[in-house]
Amino acid sequence: MLQKIKSERKWLCDYRTLLGLWVVIGIVSALCKLHAHNNYDIFRYVYFNTMNGVSLYAPSTDGGYWDMNHYGPFFSLIIAPFAVLPVWLGLLLWCVALSMCLWWAVRKSTLSRYQQIFIFWFCAHELLTALFMQQFNVAIAAIILLSFWLVEKERDEWATFFIVIGTLVKLYGIVGLAFFFFSRHKVKYAVSFCCWMALLFCLPMTYSGVDYQLGQYVEWFRCLTEKNVENADSIAQNISLLGMAHRISGLEFSDLYLILPGLLLFALPYLRFQQYSHEGFRQTLLASVLMFVCLFSTGTESSGYIIALTGCAIWFTAAPWQRTRWDIALLVFAFILTSLSPSDLFPAYLRKEFVQPYALKALPVALIWFKLCHEMLTRDYAPQPAA
Question: How far apart are CA 355 and CA 230, in angstroms?
């Protein structure tokens, strides 16, 4: 009987099952948004506006979309293959492509089979939330993972390639540089980063002109500065540790009072040089990066938590010791409050009266990140005999 049960459950751990699940999530998210895909429209117009020499950061003049683009000029190159297709097909392929980017980053990583399967199941619902918004955050999670495991495999030149892409599209990608200290070829890493930055920065100039691209980069940084101020008053933005602290306390104070201690806490584990040789330690730092980028950014929105929850899954599975009941409780808390709260599976009253007004989606991730930092500063990540 036990053997039969194990056999029946084996399909749950089959990569083909999980691949099918993530493809279906991409398709379903696109089909559900066929008549309401404003974010995708914004992305499409990044390409069309580039080709027409129109500002990428001005409101739509023809009613094609509302809100504004906040991605870098390089994004026109990424969205081009989707923008030239019929809208329904482009949207469908865009959502599936985002899903497959993260799938591929996890599947080809140095993470164990157990860790990969855990991530695919644990993050499936959050992936659906992100794809409903057609957001590039799914690809940012993939880019951070790629920049880590390519360093692990001593392919530094390709690690920096993905870091530069992430940076030029959405500044979040720059956090991939956190893995520089794990590189065995630091000179090669630094040189390749500079070369890729110069090449990819200039690449869109080949089809839109030098003056136009330089002007758009200036507009982009101005737009991001203005957006940072607007985020403080938006219930849909700043869903971070920063936003949660402001909303719960009701106080006005500089974010630097939280960001600087956060940076210090993030950086302290780098001083434990003797732990660098342990894969669990390096993977836990990867988890820290994935959570940090969401917790300490005023631009964090609900769909961005596909990045943080991927980090939570890695934190839980990377430790060489047995996880406690409290650790399990924290992970379940993150799944319920962080992943389920935007959906109809969560009580609407709690979502509208507490979770959204106080940015409580960030709470479980913040608790896990603080525990992660404590573990990285105090625990030994040397492999332990299996229990």
Answer: 20
- CA 31 to CA 96: how far, in whole Å? 11
What pLDDT score was predicted for residue 4? 44
Task: State the DSSP code for 3.
Answer: H
CA 311/CA 295 separation, integer angstroms: 12
Its pTM stands at: 0.93
- Return all residues near 343 (Cβ < 8 A) that are at least 6 apart: 125, 129
Per-domain residue ranges of the chain:
37-230, 234-378
Q: Which residues contact 319 (CB under 8 A, 6 or more apart)?
A: 280, 284, 375, 379, 381
Distance (Å, rounded) from C-alpha 289 to C-alpha 382? 21
Token pair for 39: 């974010």
* Burial zone of 236 (CB within 10 Å; 0-12 exposed, 13-18 middle, 19+ buried): exposed
**pLDDT value for 64:** 65
Residues, the chain:
387
pLDDT in tens, 310-320: 999 999 999 99
Which residues of the chain are modeled with pLDDT < 70?
Answer: 1-9, 61-65, 233, 386-387
